[in-house]
Specification:
651 residues; alpha+beta; Rossmann fold; 6-stranded antiparallel β-sheet; 22% strand; transferase; EC 2.1.1.72; S-adenosyl-L-methionine
Length: 651
């Protein structure tokens, strides 16, 4: 099935018999004549409205035609631009579309292409078998790829159970979508553009354990393009005062920082947060002579508009051993009226412990001291600044604001009680910085009441991020949803949320986890936020079209199954390429970029699957909302009604 652009180009070239050998286009001759500016050919190309619209620009009444881009369409690989992109043959730095041997100015160039996640994977721990199909999408079809899709299999989950055949959606509904996240994000644009306050994602890290298994020279390029496509639309969804957090590790942190600078503007960079994610005791040391053990990950934070961003106060637990070793006095606050300074009392650590923290052997019990006094204590430190020394010599507490804006409480001119340490939820805390080492990463295997060993993030980590960058009723988005930690925490914290996941475990793990949250499960942060259950969410799926064939190709067990499926595809699938379909199964193909030619049957089974998937038009993976009245697509009346409700379309 040809794209409209290829059909229009063939229509123009049909007027030139010299370019055809029977029905095969002699593309090299066409390219040469374009380069030589053959007058009749140039006129014919310019007079075609489609080609003129895509490859020319009018400047002050003068038509400027991009012949270089047009010849690229004709030049690369057997299926033209709709299949193997030129970056499979040549990957590198470019300037204005030309490689470095043409120009000395250097810029990192991202071709416009999509990476499609294999649909057959059912568990995240199977990531090593994951496949990302990397293809350029036909330029004239890109609007169709990103147009809103039909939503199907809609359900509303609440404490009352599961309500099916949902036909309406409101702004108060939380939303979980199953489908390709790039296409889902574009479908969300109509309803949510500029409305999402906070985005957190934990994308594939581009390691040997995930699906970016191209040879080295494609590795970073593919991962960065995958991220770029999704981050650009994610930015459109963010509110002007919104913020995005992206977790990664050393494999792509530096590359990702540069990419984010280009998308969000380096002036909107907030911080690179370092998180301690493992203990040395748990790190494998078999290659310690070659590697320094990894115990950290990063979260890159960017605002959409830094001048409008307002972050909330956020505190991490104080290191009590450090506090007790460095300071010898504590302020004990009157718990009934902590704002009445006259009722505050200073006692020493030793005195406090002797009062209520001595064990049966008459020894100081520090842990007991922490527990008994956690809701009463600020730490103190000496300060001999002029601001303190010039205070009246009164034995009472005085609140001052330092030149840097820090609030301090002065007692008898000598002891400075730092208000930077606060009591929160019965615990003493300190303001967070850009190093987070207080979040427990052990014993997470059953957090959320399910077993998900790899890639699970601590609930406390997501709680801190959401607390820092949002308020109740703000919308939180995670489009690499995985096990659902982000939306589970957003639910418990009174935020609205949107989650997107393509893997089948969304129905085995993610949705059941949210159901347990609604029921009032008490794991993770539940006790910290006094979670009692309640609330609801709507689950829906992008209605599949060509994706059904991808699933069938991936689940095929033999060549014979693929051959039978291909015959069905020829009749019913949306095929994208200008190829002689009858020759696919008996044609010859290059192997590993060398001149060895083999038949389709001689390709490896994975290569056979890959080739059939490449024949599918990736613009037709899902059913477009504009096409839902087509009787051949079999969209139910319930799905039509919900889709109209979601996108705000009338009857």
């Amino acid at each position: 099935m040809q794209t409209e652009l290829i059909r229009q180009l063939n229509q123009v070239l049909n007027a030139f018999p010299e370019y055809w050998n029977n029905e095969k286009l002699q593309r090299t001759q066409v390219i040469n004549d374009i380069k030589e500016r053959k007058l009749d050919l140039i006129k014919a190309l310019i007079n075609n409205a489609k080609i003129k619209a895509l490859y020319s620009t009018e400047v002050d009444g003068v038509l400027v035609f991009d012949f270089h881009a047009l010849t690229n369409l004709l030049q690369y690989k057997e299926y033209w631009a709709d299949s193997f992109t030129k970056y499979r043959n040549s990957v590198g730095l470019t300037s204005e579309g030309k490689y470095l041997n043409y120009n000395s100015d250097v810029a990192l160039d991202f071709p416009f292409k999509d990476c499609v996640l294999e649909g057959g994977m059912t568990r995240e721990e199977q990531g090593k078998d994951e496949i990302y199909y990397n293809e350029i999408i036909a330029r004239d079809e890109i609007d169709r790829l990103f147009s809103p899709k039909v939503l199907t299999n809609v359900k509303r989950y609440s404490k009352n159970g599961v309500e099916e055949n949902i036909t309406d959606f409101s702004n108060e509904d939380n939303l979980i979508i199953k489908g390709n996240n790039l296409i889902a994000l574009h479908s969300l644009k109509k309803r949510y553009a500029g409305k999402v306050k906070l985005i957190y994602i934990d994308p594939p890290y581009n390691t040997e354990n995930d699906g970016f298994k191209y040879n080295d020279r494609f590795n970073h390029s593919t991962w960065l393009v995958f991220m770029k496509n999704r981050l650009e639309i994610a930015k459109e969804l963010l509110s002007d005062d919104g913020i995005i957090f992206i977790q990664c590790d050393d494999n792509e942190q530096a590359y990702l920082k540069i990419l984010l600078d280009s998308i969000f503007n380096e002036n909107n960079f907030i911080s690179t947060i370092v998180i301690k994610m493992s203990h040395l005791s748990g790190v494998k040391m078999s290659h310690r002579d070659k590697n320094i053990p990894k115990i950290k990950e990063y979260i890159l934070a960017y605002s959409k508009n830094k001048t409008l961003l307002s972050l909330n106060e956020c505190y991490q637990d104080a290191n009590w051993d450090d506090v007790l070793s460095r300071y010898n006095s504590f302020l004990v606050v009157n718990e009934h009226n902590p704002n009445d300074y006259s009722q505050w009392t200073v006692i020493s650590v030793k005195e406090a412990m002797s009062m209520n923290s001595v064990d049966e052997n008459n020894k100081v019990d520090i842990e007991n001291f922490k527990i008994n006094n956690a809701n009463k204590i600020f730490r103190t430190a000496r300060n001999s600044s002029n601001q303190v020394m010039n205070l009246p010599k009164e034995k009472c507490f005085t609140k001052i604001i330092t030149p840097t804006g820090l609030a301090k409480f002065i007692y008898n001119q000598e002891e400075v009680i730092f208000a930077s340490n606060v009591i929160k939820n019965g615990k003493i805390g300190v303001p967070i910085g850009d190093i987070w080492s207080d979040i427990g990463i052990n014993n997470l295997h059953n957090e959320g009441h399910f077993d998900f060993k790899n890639g699970k993030k601590p609930e406390k980590l997501i709680q801190r991020i959401i607390q820092l960058g949002s308020n109740e009723q703000d919308i939180i988005l995670d489009f690499h949803l995985g096990s659902g930690t982000t939306v589970a925490i957003a639910h418990k914290m009174g935020r609205r949320y949107i989650g997107v996941e393509q893997m089948d475990y969304i129905n085995d793990i993610t949705v059941p986890r949210l159901q347990k949250v609604i029921e009032g499960e008490q794991g993770g942060i539940s006790k910290d936020v006094n979670w009692q259950g309640g609330g609801s969410f709507v689950y829906t799926e992008l209605k599949e079209l060509n994706y059904t064939y991808i699933h069938q190709i991936q689940s095929a067990k033999s060549y014979d199954e693929l051959a039978k499926l291909f015959e069905v595809m020829k009749q019913t699938a949306h095929l994208n390429y200008q190829v002689e379909l009858d020759k696919i199964l008996n044609d010859t193909y290059e192997v590993n970029g060398i001149d060895e030619l083999v038949t389709f049957k001689d390709l490896t089974f994975d290569e056979q699957k890959h080739l059939l998937i490449e024949l599918l038009d990736k613009n037709q993976l899902y059913v477009n909302a504009d096409d839902m009245n087509d009787i051949n697509l079999k969209v139910s009346e319930q799905d039509k009604a919900f889709t109209r409700s979601f996108y705000g379309k009338g009857e």
